[in-house]
Amino acid sequence: METANFPLMSTVIISFNQAGYLEEAIRSVLLQEYPRLEIFVIDGGSNDGSIEIIRAYEPWLTGWVSECDSGQSEAINKGLARCTGTIVNWLCSDDILQPGALHRVGRYFLEHPETDVLSGAAVYMHENQPDLNYIKRCSVDDLDVLPALNNLVQPSCYFRRSLLQGETPVRVDLHYTMDWELWCQFLERKAKWSFTNEVLSAYRVTGANKAFVGGRKILKEMFGIYRRYCGELVPLTFWFRWLFIPLNKRANVANRTTSSRIFGRLALVLLRILNRLYSPSRLRGLETAFQWYDH
């Protein structure tokens, strides 16, 4: 296939004081040797040597900036505003693209012009425990649990720039769930999603990732996203937050065995009722979200 026909692709690399990872992220994009590529590095004003790394690669970058910002979401918006490519994505500097990823993405969009978003697989790369590494694959079922849970791996999601709306397509008031909310935007606008089992990126698990340390801050942002997109008269999160979670906690900490069983049974009865009244997929998603982040 003639690669000159591949769509122009834009990759935004966002970073702040990540000199230990930044060069590998930049090289993972450059070494793709994709024929039509823009690369923007948006740095939040690092003082750890990141600027020297960026300048070393400046000849191969489309553009870069290093200045203070309000956080990751603002940095993403700065980068996306500079993009002119048909297909775009952003890459956090502690993540990397897998060899050949952009060719696979470009070929897919060329062969499937109806596709608006392509979601691929990713390696979850445990920095200090490589034996824990695994491949996360996504499917259309992961769309069903939104907005209750985000199972999609952001660095492996590529989308048409035409889907972005306004000067701040990524909400700057969200510090943990900005991609979560963006996928909900796309769904609301009836974007056509496609999925591939091709491994497109490596998500580095360092122990300091926002998704692993955000805890209840993530749940708080999710509550707002859920209310915005769920379309339910009484959001499912209401019952979870004020009934199921308290019951479940009482079941786990009750001093007496009888009390523990009573609260546990009440929690199960509530789940059965909610399963009849609400989407079972969202219910399962909320259960998982609370298991992950309620700490």
Short description:
With about 300 residues, the protein is of the alpha/beta class. Helix content is about 45%, strand content about 20%. Strands 1, 2, 3, 4, 5, 6, 7, 8 and 9 form a nine-stranded mixed β-sheet that branches.
Give the topology, please:
Blueprint: E1 9-15, H1 19-30, E2 37-43, H2 50-56, E3 63-66, H3 72-82, E4 87-92, E5 96-97, H4 101-111, E6 117-126, E7 134-136, H5 141-144, E8 157-160, H6 178-188, E9 193-205, H7 210-213, H8 216-229, H9 236-253, H10 257-277, H11 280-293
Parallel strand pairs: 1-2, 1-4, 2-3, 6-9
Antiparallel strand pairs: 4-8, 5-9, 6-7, 6-8
Helix pairs in contact: 1-2, 9-10, 9-11
Secondary-structure class: alpha/beta
Largest sheet entry: 9 strands, mixed
Shape: globular
Order of helices and strands: EHEHEHEEHEEHEHEHHHHH
What is the CA–CA distance across the termini?
Answer: 50 Å
Radius of gyration: 21 Å
CATH-wise, what's the superfamily of the largest domain? Spore Coat Polysaccharide Biosynthesis Protein SpsA, Chain A
Query: CATH topology of the largest domain, which one?
Result: Spore Coat Polysaccharide Biosynthesis Protein SpsA, Chain A
Domains, number: 2
Q: How many helical stretches?
A: 11
Describe the overall structure.
- The protein has 295 residues and is an alpha/beta fold.
- The chain folds into two domains: 211 residues, Spore Coat Polysaccharide Biosynthesis Protein SpsA, Chain A (Alpha-Beta Complex); 61 residues.
- It is built from eleven helices and nine strands.
- Strands 1, 2, 3, 4, 5, 6, 7, 8 and 9 form a nine-stranded mixed beta sheet that branches.
- Strand 6 and strand 7 form a beta hairpin.
- The longest helix has 21 residues.
- It starts with 8 loop residues before the first strand and ends with a helix.
